[in-house]
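If you are new to this repository, start here. Below is one unmodified record pulled from the training split, so you can see the exact layout before writing a loader.
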Amino acid sequence: MGKELPKKGGKGKKRPEKCITPEEAKELQHVWCCTRTPEIDKCLGYEDTREFHWSVEELQQYLKYVKKKSKKQGIDNPGIRIYFGAYPKEKCKMDRGYSTVFLAPTGAPAGEMGKGGDSSPNNYGIEPYNGGSSGIPPEGY
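And here is the target side for that same chain:
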């Protein structure tokens, strides 16, 4: 699709395989906005949020927490699944049920079925992560 970004050398500086170009990200956001937001906003009666922000430090702390707790549970290769959610109106500061996303740990102890990859089960023994901030109106990519 988009132009290949240069790979950087050195330990820990190599571009991860699943990175996409900014142009690809813009296309994904554009298609979402054209095919979903009009119906969602029409149904809700207001513009819902569609972007969420956490600092790199916050995410690193959470991922470190998940790795540590997973290791204690015998899970060598935990994952993270991202879910859409919506706040109940009464728990939303603006009395609207704005959308949110939360991160849910996945993984099973070595030797158990589904111990890795996309089919890993949710790990209900570790708390999901929420509380990112979002723009109202949403910040486009």
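Two things worth knowing about this chain: The beta strands are 79-86, 99-106. Residues 56-72 form the longest helix (17 residues).
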